[in-house]
C-alpha cells in the first residue's frame, strides 16, 4: 500500500529564515509521481510541483526548491528566505502511474512570523 | 482558463438528510476526482470519474456516490448524513490526454471546496 509521511505537524519560523518540509513515501510501484500542494486558509489546494519517479533532478523555482532522493524515499521541500505569505498547510502526495488517486501526507502547518 | 469550480461553497444539513455537491472541471479536462478532508483523517480519496464512468473508488460506504455528465461536470451525493460526514469536500480535475506522456498532463488541479456541516 502507498503511504506518505510528513513527520513535522507544525513549523514556526521568523520571516527570512530558510525552512525545509520533510516528506517520506512508501510504494511498491516502480513508476509513480510525487506532488506538493499548498493549502492557504481559503481551503483550496494549490499545485506547486510534480516529480516523476524516473526523474531525480532537483528543482528550483524562485525561493522554492525540491530535493528528490529515491534511495531514501524522500521528497523534501525547502523555502528560502521565507515570507509571511508562505504561511499555509503544505501537503506532500503520491500517486501511481494512472495519477488519478492521490495519497496525501497529514500535512505540515507552516507559520511565518514577521 | 477558469479553474475548477465547486458549488455550493458552504452547506449546513441535519443528520439523516442527503446532500448533492457539484463540480465543474477546468475546460478540456475529462477526469474528475473527489476528496474528503477532515481534521482527524486528513485528505482521503473518494472516487474518480472519466468519460462518465467511475474508474477508481476509495474506502467509503455506499452512502457516498457520484456521477459525471457528458460535459465532464460531476456531482457527488451523500445520503443519510451522519455527524462524521462534516468535512471539506474537494474536487480536482485533470486532462488525462497523455496519461503521463506529457509533463503536467496528469496533475490534479483542485477547486475551492465545499464545506459541509452536519448538525
Describe how the helices and strands are arranged.
The complex is a heterodimer of chains A (114) and B (119).
Chain A: E1 3-5, E2 10-14, E3 19-21, E4 24-26, E5 33-39, E6 46-52, E7 59-61, E8 64-69, E9 74-79, E10 88-95, E11 103-104, E12 108-113
Parallel strand pairs in A: 2-12
Antiparallel strand pairs in A: 1-4, 3-9, 5-6, 5-10, 7-8, 8-9, 10-11, 10-12
Chain B: E1 5-7, E2 10-13, E3 19-24, E4 31-38, E5 42-50, E6 53-57, E7 64-68, E8 74-78, E9 87-94, E10 109-110, E11 114-118
Parallel strand pairs in B: 2-11
Antiparallel strand pairs in B: 1-3, 3-8, 4-5, 4-9, 5-6, 7-8, 9-10, 9-11
Structure, described:
The complex is a heterodimer of chains A (114) and B (119). Chain A is mainly beta and 114 residues long. Chain A has strands spanning 3-5, 10-14, 19-21, 24-26, 33-39, 46-52, 59-61, 64-69, 74-79, 88-95, 103-104, 108-113. In chain A, strands 2, 5, 6, 10, 11 and 12 form a 6-stranded mixed β-sheet that branches. A 4-stranded antiparallel β-sheet of chain A has the order 3-9-8-7, with no helix packed on it. A two-stranded antiparallel sheet of chain A has the order 1-4. In chain A, a hairpin with a 4-residue loop joins strand 8 and strand 9 (74-79). Chain A is globular. The model of chain A has no long low-confidence stretch (mean pLDDT 93). Chain B has 119 residues and is an all-beta fold. Chain B is built from no helices and 11 strands. Chain B has strands spanning 5-7, 10-13, 19-24, 31-38, 42-50, 53-57, 64-68, 74-78, 87-94, 109-110, 114-118. In chain B, strands 2, 4, 5, 6, 9, 10 and 11 form a 7-stranded mixed β-sheet that branches. In chain B, strands 1-3-8-7 form a 4-stranded antiparallel β-sheet, with no helix packed on it. In chain B, a hairpin with a 3-residue loop joins strand 4 (31-38) and strand 5. Chain B is globular and about 35 Å long. The model of chain B is unreliable at 98-105 (pLDDT under 50).
